[in-house]
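Q&A log
Question type: sequence-to-structure
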Amino acid sequence: WAWGRWRLAYIRRYVDQMVVLFPFEEAFYRREGIPVTWVGHPLADEARPTLRREEALERFGLNEWRMTVGLLPGSRRDEVRRHLPLMLAAARRIRWRMPGVQFLLPKAPTVPREAVAPLVSCSGLEVRLAEGSVHDALQLMDAALIASGTATLDAACCGVPMVVVYRASWPTYAAARAVLRIPRIALVNVVAGRAVVPELLQHRATPARAAATLIELLRDEPRCERMKEELRAVRETLGPPGAVDRAASVVLELLQRSGR
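Response status: OK
Response body:
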């Protein structure tokens, strides 16, 4: 639905039943005459903290009276390499203008600690690294800088106002712009069908712009509350818990009907 519409011919030929995570995907494939069932998103089951707020504050060494800004640079090593220096530079600007802010960086389990720790230690900032459930960390954040990806949905499920950033290599970016058929790339905005959260992409993803956008959000409480309401609506579109069981049921029913 975002790019590679030429694949539809192969899907029609080889796929008996599409099982999709988002309602707009169901509408897309139905319009194309492809059998499809929307089962919901597994985050409806998974997006909840494992620790109470007080326990999480203690584990990550945060002051409950200070504002907390999250830094989520991505779940792949190359994403961390592209985004974390940008986010740390933005964080320095945020600290200069809002000295009481503290920073929390949830480390994805797919990213080795040595890909993150040296960058943090050289930043001149006190940034708390959080390992384990990302939702334990998200529940503590007043706002976050987040690399575009599933983490934006995680944050939406936890009601965290955010600014989304993303940088790719210029050849990749140029190729993507040539084939993408959607106006926004942040999953939160794609699911909502409108710009719920700001997106800073490629040349617009600078430390100065990221810091200014996040500071403006933090200082505008009514805007933060409106964004939280819109994020709750995004969370509702993920469907009720039980997506994995519903997906399995669709497959089993298809197999039974086909006699396989």
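Response note: The chain has a mean pLDDT of 91.
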